[in-house]
């Protein structure tokens, strides 16, 4: 799962990033309005943690931009401004939740999990596709009740394909979503091919197949 943190206070930004990375999220950051606007426009995220008070703009305007573009990312407003009017305005503009500073990182994690569960997995704690069962909170996968061991990237790829199982996922979108900012360091998609190959092997006796569409990307196929 991929998260964008929009926060201008360096220590807070670093604490949030470290906390979420410990939970195996792919985390990107933006510390001002323009950088956040560029990332929101060019990339997709599962959840955006959005500060209202930015040095060069208002976070609520970014929320407006997000909705105007027809994007469906989950949004949690994270701000020291805790007035009722701010909270109502943010929720009316389409935010999923509002977390007032200061807060415990455990609460942040719980709020993020809840938004991701509602947005990506229809509120379910367990996803079943044929004989495959996935538990996002524990990042565990089983086939016919038998657990299979996936490394972090294999799980992230499977999770992204499940979330987007109704559509074809391009190689570029998959790479950017799973590897985040680090994708800029890659000069080919060989690292995706390797992870997909291993994931297919581990799922070869399941009802899930990862179909390749030559030159484009991948699509998840679930046999009844």
UniProtKB/TrEMBL annotation:
InterPro entries, alphabetized: CheY-like_superfamily (IPR011006), OmpR/PhoB-type_DNA-bd (IPR001867), Sig_transdc_resp-reg_receiver (IPR001789), WalR-like (IPR039420), WH-like_DNA-bd_sf (IPR036388)
Database matches in Pfam families: Response_reg, Trans_reg_C
Coiled-coil portions: none
Record-annotated DNA-binding residue ranges: 124-222
Name of the protein in its database record: DNA-binding response regulator
GO function term, MF aspect, one: phosphorelay response regulator activity
The OmpR/PhoB-type domain, residue ranges: 124-222
Modified residues (4-aspartylphosphate): 51
One GO CC term on file: protein-DNA complex
Protein's UniProt keywords contain Transcription: yes
Species of the source: Pelobium manganitolerans
């Amino acid at each position: 799962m991929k998260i964008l943190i929009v926060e201008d206070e360096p220590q807070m930004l670093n604490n949030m990033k470290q906390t979420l990375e410990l939970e195996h999220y792919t985390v990107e950051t933006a510390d001002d309005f323009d950088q956040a606007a560029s990332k929101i426009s060019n990339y997709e995220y599962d959840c955006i943690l959005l500060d209202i008070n930015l040095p060069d703009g208002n976070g609520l305007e970014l929320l407006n931009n997000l909705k105007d573009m027809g994007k469906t990312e989950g949004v949690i407003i994270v701000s020291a401004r805790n007035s009722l009017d701010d909270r109502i305005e943010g929720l009316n503009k389409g935010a999923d939740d509002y977390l007032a500073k200061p807060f415990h990182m455990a609460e942040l994690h719980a709020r993020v999990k809840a938004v991701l569960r509602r947005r990506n997995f229809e509120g379910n704690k367990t996803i079943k596709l044929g004989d495959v069962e996935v538990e996002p909170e524990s990042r565990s996968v089983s086939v016919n009740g038998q657990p299979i061991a996936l490394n972090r990237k294999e799980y992230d790829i499977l999770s992204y394909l499940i979330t987007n199982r109704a559509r074809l996922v391009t190689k570029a979108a998959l790479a950017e979503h799973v590897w985040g900012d680090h994708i800029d360091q890659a000069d080919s998609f060989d690292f995706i091919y390797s992870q997909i190959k291993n994931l297919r092997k581990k799922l070869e006796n399941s009802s899930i197949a990862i179909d390749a569409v030559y030159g484009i990307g991948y699509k998840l196929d679930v046999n009844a």
